From TrEMBL:
Annotated SUPFAM superfamilies: SMI1/KNR4-like
Signal sequence extent: none
Superkingdom, taxonomy of origin: Bacteria
Database matches in SMART domains: SMI1_KNR4 (SM00860)
Domain Knr4/Smi1-like: 26-166
Protein name: SMI1/KNR4 family protein
Pfam families: SMI1_KNR4
InterPro entries in UniProt: Knr4/Smi1-like_dom, Knr4/Smi1-like_sf, KNR4/SMI1_regulator
Gene3D superfamilies, A to Z: SMI1/KNR4-like (3.40.1580.10)
Record PANTHER family: CELL WALL ASSEMBLY REGULATOR SMI1
Length: 195
């Protein structure tokens, strides 16, 4: 995982050196173990190795993942509890029937599943998640979208490492740029304007 951080930090150094200042140091083994105990299963080895080097980013206006925050393990825990509280309160049911999502093949049709672990966030309830409980056609550890007000759930990558490779390669290729107000954003997004 060191290679991915090296590549990402090298890009930041060239294009947005101030982003280097919002990276947390690596997560402690105790914090990672606490997350795994909370969710009741192990996180993927690639995720743990990546987070051992940098535990996501500080809460800042600038996001590292297409304007979204790369959540720390502590922030992942907060978001997980938020979604779990909504689930436990019956928010995802209507007349005692579950509200179903419309997922890609390979994702369960839950509105939210306790084994969908958010690792990015936009501050409005939208995330990329690691899916540790896929449908039979899916892969454990696949990366999926979770939008709080949209029923579609999409598979973004087959694994955390695959997502990471694709994203960092796209950043290096120039598909993403730095915009001071938002952080790293896709070059074609509406967020791409001079401020």
């Amino acid at each position: 995982m060191q290679q991915y951080w090296n590549r990402w930090e090298n890009w930041m150094q060239q294009h947005a050196p101030r982003l280097l200042n919002i990276l947390h140091p690596g997560v402690t083994p105790e914090a990672m173990e606490a997350l795994e105990k909370l969710i009741g299963t192990a996180m993927p080895a690639s995720f743990k190795a990546f987070y051992a080097l940098h535990n996501g980013q500080q809460k800042a206006r600038a996001g590292l993942v297409d304007a979204d925050q790369l959540l720390s393990v502590e922030d992942i825990t907060v978001q997980w509890h938020h979604w779990k509280d909504l689930l436990d309160a019956g928010t995802f049911t209507w007349h005692e029937e579950p509200i179903l999502a419309t997922p890609d093949t390979g994702i369960k049709n839950d509105w939210w599943n306790p084994l969908w672990i958010p690792f990015t966030g936009d501050g409005f309830g939208n995330h990329l998640c690691i899916d540790l409980d896929p449908a039979p056609e899916g892969r454990r550890g696949q990366v999926i979208t979770l939008w709080h007000d949209d029923s579609h759930r999409a598979i973004v990558a087959g694994s955390f490492e695959e997502w990471l490779q694709d994203y960092i390669s796209a950043v290096e290729r120039g598909d993403y740029i730095f915009v001071k107000r938002w952080g790293i954003v896709h070059k074609d997004t509406f967020l791409n304007y001079n401020d």
